[in-house]
Write a structure and sequence with these properties.
Elements: H1 2-13, H2 20-46, E1 53-56, E2 61-65, H3 69-82, E3 87-94, E4 97-109, E5 129-133, H4 155-167
Antiparallel strand pairs: 1-2, 2-5, 3-4, 4-5
Helix pairs in contact: 2-3
Length: 168
């Protein structure tokens, strides 16, 4: 009995498996646990709501979401994997009705937002999120925008508006 335990410990230390089936089982279990963990993190992140604001760009809108450093550090491993293709689905809510989505848009993460001319007055930190979103097909500039879309000339105006919204 002691010899079998020593052999098993030796096998694990040498990263060897006693059979191909043991090896396949270990690999599959690791992949499955990883997929389950990522799905749980995805659901948890998707349930979070963050304030954000829009900036007019030459061909659409940029959405600036000032994520916190705590969110970034707590979720960085999952976030990197969930956003690796740069495409996200953004669910927009109205401050007055946070339980019901106003609309759902597709968005592309802006990789270097501080180098985009339209965002020059909206500096962001590395842990904050900036995305490019296009107006839905058929929307025109002269058509009234949903209440949920608020644009600001600079970051300080947006921060002031967030502070005022929190007071209400």
């Amino acid at each position: 009995m002691t010899v079998a335990v020593e052999q098993m410990e030796l096998s694990v230390e040498n990263d060897e498996h006693l059979s191909d089936m043991n090896h396949v089982t270990a690999v599959v279990q690791g992949v499955a646990q990883d997929a389950l963990w990522l799905e749980e993190r995805k659901q948890e992140i998707a349930s979070m709501q963050f304030p954000g604001y829009f900036v007019k760009g030459p061909r659409g809108l940029f959405l600036v979401i000032p994520l916190t450093l705590k969110f970034y550090t707590d979720n960085s491993a999952a976030w990197r994997r969930l956003t690796k293709d740069g495409i996200l689905q953004v669910i927009l809510y109205n401050w007055d009705h946070l339980e019901k989505p106003e609309s759902i848009w597709e968005a592309k993460i802006a990789e270097s937002p501080n180098s985009i001319p339209a965002l020059k007055d909206h500096p962001t930190e590395g842990h904050e999120l900036v995305m490019f979103v296009r107006l839905k097909a058929g929307d025109k500039e002269d058509r009234p925008q949903p209440k949920v879309i608020k644009t600001f000339n600079d970051r300080s105006d947006a921060n002031h508006a967030f502070a005022e919204e929190k007071k209400q």
